[in-house]
Every structure is written in C-alpha cells, then in structure tokens.
Write a structure and sequence with these properties.
This protein is α+β, with helices and mostly antiparallel strands and about 350 residues long. It is about 25% helix and about 20% strand.
C-alpha cells in the first residue's frame, strides 16, 4: 500500500523527513493500521489529522499558553513545579541529554496532570494530586481552557491507541483497560523555547536528545521548525532530520513503555529541538498507563526465538526514575519561589 505522507519537504539548511499521515476519521481502519505500522517500524513518528479538535480551539490554547509565559518570572516562579510534577519548569530545569549538553534545556514549561483532590485515596501516588493554577485575576478562564484541551487530547490518544493495538495484533480496546489508558497518568505540558540559537557542536540545545518515557506523545506546534528525529539511535554518527510542523495536525511519537511492551517491534525514537534563534511554542500531551500497570512484553510480541528483552517494571517506578534522572532537585530552588 502506498504511504500517505504529510509535511514532506526539503530545506536548504537541513533534511525534512517524510512522515506517514493518519486520519482518525478514516472509515478504512485497515488503511490506518497499515500506515501506522509502517511508521512505527520506520521511525516511531507520524502525523495525525482529522482528530476532531477545531483549529480555533487549538489557536486559543496556544494564545493562553503564550499569555502564561509572558508573565514576569517571579509570577511564574510562584507556581514552580512541586514534587508531583505540577506547575512551572524554568529554563535549564531539565537536562535530557547530560552526556552532550553543557547546560540544561533552553526551554520553560508548565505541567498539568489529572486533577486529583487532596482527600482522594490516590493522593499518595506519584504524579497524582491537585494541579497548580494561575490566579483567575491574572489569567481568567485559563484553567478551563487547559482542562478542556487535556480532555480532548486524551480522547485523541485513546483513538490512536486503538490503531496501535490492532497493529500489534491485539484487540482494539486493549489500551482502554483501567491499568492502561482507562485510568492513566496523563500529562499536558506547555512549552516555550526562548530565542537562543542552538549549537549541537557546543552542547547547546533547545531540548536535548531523548526518547519519551511513556506510551505515546501527541504534540502540537506553532509554525517554527526545530524538532529533529534520529531514526537509528545506534548509528555513528547519528543522522538527524527535521520534522516539519503541520498546521491543524499532531506529531505523534512512541515512548519507551511501548518499546518495552512490544519487545522492540515498535521503537521509541530519539528526538531533540535545535533552533535558529526564533522563539517556539509547542504543546505536548503524554498518554501513559496507570501507576500499577506492569510494563512487560506482550504475548503477541514474543516467541521461543524472540524472548522478552526487558524485565517487568511498574509504570510508576519507571516514570519516577526517568523524571528524577532528568530534572533538577527541587532543593535547588529554595528561596527563589513562593510555594503553594
């Protein structure tokens, strides 16, 4: 079957990769499964279109995101991320490629998770708890917009997961189970890259090379290019290709947990952000399994000749380790913020 490709182009400055394009509303599910499977075997990245989120609403979410990042730094620091990873992450807070970065990522962000009240029995779990929200006096209606987007993004993630399940010879509703995306760790992250020129040769990046931690990520971006992927993480030297922004569509990639579940049939892919000095805004949504989910090889992805490559691990344990490895210790910020 011929691939449906979006965003393929060449640039005088760098390669633009061609990615398969999957329409969520296409009634030909086998076509979508074929395109997704090919994409997952090739690069682990693909575009999703016709996802049911209007362009007007997407524009509003980006507008509200910019309004937050335009606030004075001391106002943003009042919402500094807490131990549950909710709230503001300053520039250089995260270092995703410590072997090659001389500083942290030149980006600031804002984490929004599933809203869990203080009296909920799940409050003790990592990544669960009440979110931190900007004051209504400062950013009226901001919370409502972000919660609505989070709900829509989870819906789209579940639709994509159905196609992934079929591509792995599983039942379409496999990822709908409570331990998967039925009761997920679902995190929305607003991102703003400052206008600093990246210089990979000097270890300066908007975002260092990494693979995502969880199941799947759906990414909306503005029209500023910067995202690069490396299809073969073992290649020396690594070959990096730009992913073109796609107006109205999502860039979707697989995370480490799906790589582990599929026993490397589907691979999580290294990616980074390299910028030419332009500001860039993006909105990432990480759809990850439930805390108790045991991430282990799927029966459809193993055989006597192909035994499981990874030991089982719970989603919570894996996520905690990866966050601890990549974020500054909160004690680094003592005296720099007003904690809520």
């Amino acid at each position: 079957m011929a691939a449906t490709v979006c965003g393929a182009a060449t640039s005088a400055e760098a390669n633009m990769t061609a990615l398969n394009c999957i329409s969520i509303s296409d009634p030909d599910i086998q076509k979508s499964v074929s395109l997704l499977k090919q994409a997952c075997l090739d690069s682990g990245f693909f575009y999703v279109i016709n996802h049911g989120i209007s362009e007007e609403f997407m524009n509003e979410v980006f507008f509200r995101s910019r309004k937050f990042f335009d606030l004075p730094l001391h106002k943003k620091m009042e919402l500094l991320r807490n131990e549950k990873h909710r709230g503001y992450t300053p520039t250089l807070d995260e270092t995703l490629d410590p072997e090659n970065q001389v500083h942290g990522d030149f980006k600031e962000g804002y984490y929004i998770g599933v809203e869990v009240p203080e009296d909920d029995p799940d409050i003790e779990k990592p990544f669960y708890g009440p979110n931190q929200w900007p004051s209504e006096d400062i950013l009226p209606g901001w919370r409502q917009i972000m919660e609505q987007y989070q709900k829509e993004a989870l819906r789209v993630s579940r639709e994509i997961a159905k196609i992934i399940a079929l591509a792995l010879d599983l039942d379409a509703d496999f990822f709908d189970k409570p331990q998967m995306l039925g009761v997920p760790i679902a995190t929305l992250r607003l991102l703003h890259y400052e206008g600093k020129v990246s210089n990979p040769a000097s270890g300066i990046y908007g975002c260092g090379a990494h693979s995502d931690f969880g199941l799947i990520t759906i990414l909306a971006t503005d029209d500023v290019a910067g995202l690069q992927i490396c299809k073969d993480k073992d290649a020396k030297p690594r070959i990096w290709e730009y992913v073109a922004p796609l107006k109205g569509g999502f860039i979707v990639n697989l995370g480490d947990m799906l790589e582990r579940l599929s026993n490397d049939v589907f691979r999580s892919t290294l990616h980074r952000v390299v910028l030419d000095g332009q500001e860039r805004y993006s909105i990432a949504f990480f759809a990850d399994p439930n805390h108790e989910c045991l991430v282990e090889c799927l029966p459809s992805c193993t055989s006597e000749m192909n035994p499981p490559k990874y030991p089982p691990i719970t989603c919570a344990a894996y996520m905690c380790q990866r966050y601890n490895d990549t974020h500054l210790d909160l004690s680094s910020y003592v005296g720099q913020e007003t904690r809520k």
